Amino acid sequence: MGGGRGDFVFGGAVGFWGFALYGLANAVGAVLGGRSVNESVVNGGQLDAQVGERGRGEARSIAMVFGGDACAAERLADVRGGEAVTGGVRVALLYPTRNDLREEALAALRRVRPPVGGRCEVVVCDDSTLAEWRERVDVMVGLGALTGGGSGSGGYKNPTWRPVRLIRRPAGSPGWKAGNVNFALRQLEAEGFTHFAVCDADGMFPEDFLERTLGYFGEEDWSHGASEVETGGERGAVAYVQTRQEGDSGASSRFSRVMAPAVGAHFRQQVAGRAAGGGFVMFYGHGALISMDAWRAIGGLPEIVTEDLAFSMKLRAAGWRGVYAAGVVCAEEFPLTWPQLRKRTDKWIRGTGECLKLHGRGFFRSPRVPWTEKLDVWMHGTQHFLAVPMLVFLGLLATILPWQLKEFRMPGSFFVPPVLEGKSMVEAAMGLRYHVFWSWDFYLMMVVTLLAPGLCFGIERVGSRGGTAAFRWRDLPGFFFASTFTYLAGLVTEALSVLVFLVTGRATFRVTNDAAEEGVSADRRARATSTLTPGFNPNHWVVYTLEVVVGIGFLAAVWAHRNLWFLGPGVALVLSPLVASRRFGGWERWWIRAAASIPGLCLLTLLALIAWQLVRR
Question: pTM surpassing 0.85?
Answer without folding.
Answer: no
